[in-house]
Amino acid sequence: MEPDEALARLRALGFADDDAQRLFAHFADAEARGKPSHGFSRVEWLETLELDVAARPERVEAEPGFERWHGRGAVGYLVLDAVVRAQFADPPGAARIVVCEDTFPTGMLGGWVRRLAEGGFVAALTATSPARLAHPGGGPKLIGTTPLAIGIPSSAGDPIVTDVSMGRVTYGDVLAGLAAPEELVPFGGEHAHKAFALGLGLQLLVQALLRAPGFGAVLLVARPESDPVPALRAQAAGVRLPGDGGGIRDEVRGLAADAGDREEMRIIRGQMADLKPPLSD
Amino acid sequence: MEPDEALARLRALGFADDDAQRLFAHFADAEARGKPSHGFSRVEWLETLELDVAARPERVEAEPGFERWHGRGAVGYLVLDAVVRAQFADPPGAARIVVCEDTFPTGMLGGWVRRLAEGGFVAALTATSPARLAHPGGGPKLIGTTPLAIGIPSSAGDPIVTDVSMGRVTYGDVLAGLAAPEELVPFGGEHAHKAFALGLGLQLLVQALLRAPGFGAVLLVARPESDPVPALRAQAAGVRLPGDGGGIRDEVRGLAADAGDREEMRIIRGQMADLKPPLSD
Questions:
Q1: Looking at the complex, does the CB of residue B153 fall below 8 Å from at least one CB of chain A?
Q2: H/E/C letters for each residue in chain A?
Q3: Which ipTM value was assigned to this complex?
């Protein structure tokens, strides 16, 4: 799907223009980062759902160091988008845990923590999703792919963003025919029990903090006290670090340099501005 | 090393009796859970360090949802022991982040979150340690084995505790000659970049929240709103879940049933009482 078509189809689903732009920005980010299974293909998938495009997520609890949000039927991407914007509008003290109820799907988790890290916050995010992974020893599928994304701001250059799901392949890859269903197992080969345990622990952590059954997310957002990234990059001496690749704007510039993609990329590039952390809600 | 010898040697190092008991309880727990590299062998290792046995960890900051502790030169195990006891003495509201400066070594992280989970709290804990893992693509050793431990209380039976380090083997195994140094790489084989990314993200998360260089830990402790473990166990239908095995008391009972181990196990069993979450500091 081409970017302009994706945006048009999001609008055709009935989303208000700012929501369509928010969804588009998240999908375009995933495309630019080489994660097409979280990209424009999701528009087609959204078209198969019964969406309440007018639903608005709500912050139902706020105390120092803690917030609880409820999706209120909004698509999960827009819940997390609202949560991210709210952190900038009302920043945490030292740290804050944000529990998101009724929040699905959550997309490329690295995208949300990257926005927080670009705005100067340390962030970690995990989320539940349908059970697709069994224990490597056998038995029923017990856990989702349960990614953990972590974003760390840097005084020099891009943040470091890690975003690791516990599956050997993604469910999106299976849907897209890029991987066979039997490849959707915990990663790690002979040590797959480790990835399974990580996913199980993270899934139960989210589930235990939710009030109601359903899918959700837990976010940690905190103010950094130190700036470890520049020293790490110096020590890494050129080793490509997770989430790196010159930053999304460089990637977009690279893609846009291909004349055939110019029109398409003009649109994405225009949307990139929306990926900058907004300073207020 | 036999349990009674371990306790005697801890006392001989000059630790006050309650601290010697706390260290012993942690090491005995590791032994009983089949993690001898975090067990009594650590007494021998402590004997090689310059320890300040009179040092006392200090809570240097406390605000709703956040605490910062400083080891003040105390051995890391005793910092985390003090932090765990403090959570019971002064429980969090909905959730609390605890940053621990100058906290090393931290031992079997699952032991600390298990105590919190047995006392009814959801807990997640990670910690930094010397760099031992390189990027799977090569280059210098950039990260420690950086475990992530998660403990989830249950209304029926034992908590679920996951405790996963990002190394294919442990550094303790290398020290003990159970694994070759070249086996100390991120786990995951062809997907080892995932374990490396998880460890890198967790390490930077801790480092970014510390004020001063050095090793430290970050703990999330929260009140559960739901009770997902019984349903998971029912669904798992007998699959052995991480951290399971019938609970430490069952394991100890099993070991103690071996007549040859009876005297040794009598001592461990006596110490098990100390593993129950204290109700006050």
A1: yes
A2: CCHHHHHHHHHHCCCCHHHHHHHHHHHHHHHHCCCHHHCCHHHHHHCCCCCCCCCCCEEEEEECCEEEEECCCCCHHHHHHHHHHHHHHCCCCCEEEEEEECCCCCCCHHHHHHHHHHCCCEEEEEECCCCCEECCCCCCEEECCCCEEEEECCCCCCCEEEEECCECCCHHHHHCCCCCHHHCCECCHHHHHHHHHHHHHHHHHHHHHCCCCCCCEEEEEECCCCCHHHHHHHHHCCCCCCCCCCHHHHHHHHHHCCHHHHHHHHHHHHHHHHHCCCCCC
A3: 0.88
